[in-house]
Amino acid sequence: MIGFITGRIDHMGTNFILVDTGGVGYRIFMNTGDLARLQVDQKVKVYTYLSVREDALQLFGFLSYDAYSLFTQLITVSGIGPKMAQGILSASKVDSFYLAVKNRDVKFLTKLPGIGKKTAERLLLELKDMVAPEGLQDEDGNEVSFNENDLDDDTTTLGAVAEGLASLGFRRDEIDAVLKRLPVKPESTVEQLLDEALKMLYRRG
Asked: Can you tell me the distance from the alpha carbon of 87 to that of 175, in angstroms, rounded to the nearest whole number?
């Protein structure tokens, strides 16, 4: 697998660059933010991900390892392929995206290309253990981490459970009733509480 490529930019397209390295030209698809920082004849180092499909091999590139890392995490989410992941990186800064996931900001995520409410909720669920860049800070200067313990706050945890139940089609009154009965403990995780809530709801049904 090609980890990164260094060379001279020979040509720039609307969503790609051609990098000349040792007489070989690599076509690398890039997000709009990175493209705006480049120009023909510039020497670059591009972190790359090789997408392998039956009908094509495509290189996706990034000027920072943080963007590359986020991209590789995004494409692990069901329904998000390389092109959609690259579109997300075109529409959002890396740190803004990590903070949106940490804060469970569905409104922010649904503004990104190709992300509807259901996809945003699935993204939050599947990226709950995502690894943020070391030293990433929020607006208050606090270091951002993505640990299950970040969900220990009762309001945040119950909010996540409510979102999960709503995505499964339960009514608001059903959700409110079961949330009042959930045995929330400091060590409780969203998955544990969601499982308990579903047991309660199905017993009532």
From this structure: 34
Closest to 70 measured CA to CA, from 96, 94, 90:
94
HSE-CB for 50 with a 13 A CA cutoff = 8
Nearest CA to 95 out of 142, 148, 51, 38 is that of 142
How do residues 145-179 score in pLDDT, each as one tens digit?
A: 544 444 334 445 677 777 777 777 777 778 878 87
CB neighbours (10 Å) of residue 152?
15
DSSP element (H, E) containing 183: none
Read off the pLDDT of residues 48-99 as tens digits, 9 standing for 90 and up.
Answer: 999 988 788 899 999 999 999 999 999 998 889 999 999 999 998 888 898 8
Handedness of CA 27, 28, 31, 37 (dihedral sign): negative
What Å distances lie between residue 128 and 90, 150, 171, CA to CA? 22, 10, 25
Cα separation, 164 vs 190, in Å, equals 9
